Predict the structure.
Amino acid sequence: MTKTKANGAPVLPDKAQLLNAAELLARLFTPTTRPSTRTLIRWRQSRKIPFVQIGRRIWYQEDKVRQAIERKNLVRAV
């Protein structure tokens, strides 16, 4: 269920917590075990990992993506 404010608008995560694809991959994986950006896009499109879309931009929350990766056994994150 999506959290909403009193006026019905969705509550968005703090911008400081949001990462783009390159930042997310750099934080979660070592250079030798890092999947490609295309793989991350496939995971997003198949709803295997959570994301936030603001306008045309896609953002990720590191802790939620890490949990999803571990829960779904996609790969072993560091």
User: Anything to note?
Assistant: The chain has a mean pLDDT of 85. Helices lie at 21-28, 37-45, 62-72. The two ends are 29 Å apart (CA to CA). The beta strands are 18-19, 52-54, 57-61.
